[in-house]
Amino acid sequence: MGEVDPAFVQELEHRPKLGIIAAEGIPIIDLSTLSSSDATPDHSQALEGLVKQVGNACRDWGFFQVINHGVSLEKREKIFNASKKFFAQPLEEKNKIRRDDKGALGYYDTEHTKNVRDWKEVFDFTAHNPIIIPASYKPDEKELTKLGNQWPEHPPDLREICEDYAKEMERLAFKLMELIALSLGLRPDRFHGFFKDQTSAIRLNHYPPCPFPHLALGVGRHKDPGGLTILAQDDVGGLEVKRKSDGEWTWVKPTPNSYTINVGDISQVWSNDAYESVEHRVKVNPEKERFSIPYFFNPAHYTIVKPLEEIVNEQNPAKFRPYNWADFMANRKRSNFQKLDVENLQISHYRTSKLADKSEGALSINN
Ligand SMILES: O=C(O)CCC(=O)C(=O)O
Ligand SMILES: [Fe+2]
């Protein structure tokens, strides 16, 4: 078995328990109502029910799974197969499109989450290509640059498959944001404008079997920074969510062909804390490899993220100061590349009142 590289070892308090606490409560939501558009009273009642379910799930869990979502099963299978073929290649092949700190897209196997190395390898691409981002990690960088995708030679159809899949994800993401908007009492298209020049990205994740499942994690605990995440996972399982009701790490049981949705930090800020972006992590398996594919629905780089005007009022004052999405991301990316001795940037740093931060422990330094 050999010695574990200390870079992968989690602090004692963050090491995973090997048993499973099944999260029976994570809601499974049927989206079939969205695929019919008849204007009958029955249909509008069904839609109202759906909006309620989504709102409750966002409030109580920050996570839910969707079925009958309208995403092509064929396209999902194709991207999983292509991902397996890509990662099965020798490292030197994958390294030909290795990401570096100038072109932060492509293959990477040394990502750190909260300054501990993850037991995984990834391939990143943006759904719209290229995207515009700040030219450097410096705070308040004004210069912009284009960031483009890098595609491997093998498998040769990976690019087409990924681009096709991205379109499916975008369609679902807009529908979900409409449901979230309605559940907050807003116009269904309230969020659409933010995603006009979107910086959405897709990640192919491969978690190889790990002989140290009690010490290492596939992805360390974190919150997703964007609008929302649509995750496809295979049937191995490993994703755990920090349950809001008691703070217990809870297994998200894979439901075949479903997608797991989670509210990102930006939706937490937009909703002024009505919906919380919840911490999650990935356990590794000693025998089985695992594949997953998250789609991160992210707004335009110039977006100033702040609680929506329709939501804040005297009784519910803004709980966050405005921040620029691109600055936030640039800061985060830096800490993905290297082990830093400083704390990662979190939305809690923009809270108007630090003491109001119940979930993150404003005084803790281990974010
Ligand atoms: O692989 C998973 O199940 C989740 C991955 C994840 O949380 C992420 O990449 O942000
Ligand atoms: Fe995540």
Automatic annotation (TrEMBL):
Gene3D superfamilies from the UniProt entry: B-lactam Antibiotic, Isopenicillin N Synthase, Chain
PANTHER family, A to Z: 2OG-FE(II) OXYGENASE FAMILY, PUTATIVE (AFU_ORTHOLOGUE AFUA_2G00750)-RELATED, OXIDOREDUCTASE, 2OG-FE II OXYGENASE FAMILY PROTEIN
Protein name (Swiss-Prot/TrEMBL): Fe2OG dioxygenase domain-containing protein
Domain spans labelled Fe2OG dioxygenase: 197-299
Keyword Oxidoreductase: yes
Origin superkingdom: Eukaryota
Keyword terms: Iron, Metal-binding, Oxidoreductase
Lineage: Eukaryota, Viridiplantae, Streptophyta, Embryophyta, Tracheophyta
Keyword hit for Metal-binding: yes
One Pfam family cited in the UniProt record for this chain: 2OG-FeII_Oxy
Similarity comment: Belongs to the iron/ascorbate-dependent oxidoreductase family.
